[in-house]
């Protein structure tokens, strides 16, 4: 099984990524960045690929330039598909299907290793296992918040939902797994990246769904809001349905860490309740650390593993249904 994962040619860009996900921030600043969470479709790559000279007349590599414009096209295509296909009905269906948790049974650590394999297999530019990136985030937070052990574990597990890309989890297309998320059932906020593509989404023309509040009462709480389907919501379902004892702030981080319109642009605050506003403070702290998740700080996995296994034991059952 080979799953192709896009990586920036320019490693300086990597540190600007706010998440393992494709970040809308990168798009708006024209620093187009893909990372380990973003799967580049093979057909897009192969259909546009051509052999270029290594160095142009200015001494720059053509390959970097081409890679950059290819990435821009790929990212835009990604959001076009995402915005057209993520409808209220689609998300309802996915939540129902994946809420059954009948795909696999495994521990949290086994899932870390599974995700590790996938990214390792597929990523020619990633010179460290994916688990190190998860641990880099976790260890960075641990250093600054030594007493918040729940936050260390949250950092470790927040991206595990990306296993949705694997055939054994249904092999979902990238637009249903990664990228920024947004609410359904109410108007698409202008701050959502590549907003123009929503015009081809049936919900855009549905008068029940295309007003500011749509189907939701004022300050109803995000828990009652349907958010576009991806690795965030899936991992939230897995954690909650398996009876995790992690605090609500942890579940909030897992569930909304790709919800950039909320935590970066401040959109949709009219749907938040008091608890959401409290939890948002932790999400903003978390996101700062996720930014550095691809730093070059090497982590000795075997050395820190016992600590994280003890946290997993504290907050999760030995085996989870996925
Ligand atoms: Fe992440
Ligand atoms: Fe993520």
Keywords:
45% helix; binds fe (ii) ion; globular; two-stranded antiparallel sheet; 2 domains; 13 helices; 4 strands; 322 residues; disordered N terminus; single chain; mainly alpha
How is this fold's topology laid out?
Layout: H1 11-14, H2 24-28, H3 42-48, H4 62-85, H5 88-98, E1 105-106, H6 108-122, H7 130-144, H8 149-157, E2 183-184, E3 226-227, H9 231-241, H10 248-256, H11 260-263, H12 274-290, H13 301-315, E4 320-321
Antiparallel strand pairs: 1-4, 2-3
Helix pairs in contact: 7-8, 8-10, 8-13, 9-10, 10-12
What does this structure look like?
This protein is mostly helical and 322 residues long. It has two domains: 71 residues, no CATH class; 235 residues, no CATH class. The protein contains 13 helices and four strands. It has a two-stranded antiparallel ribbon with strand order 1-4. It has a two-stranded antiparallel ribbon with strand order 2-3. α7 packs antiparallel against α8 and α8 packs parallel to α10. The chain starts with 10 loop residues before the first helix and ends with a strand. The N terminus is likely disordered. One fe (ii) ion binds next to loops.
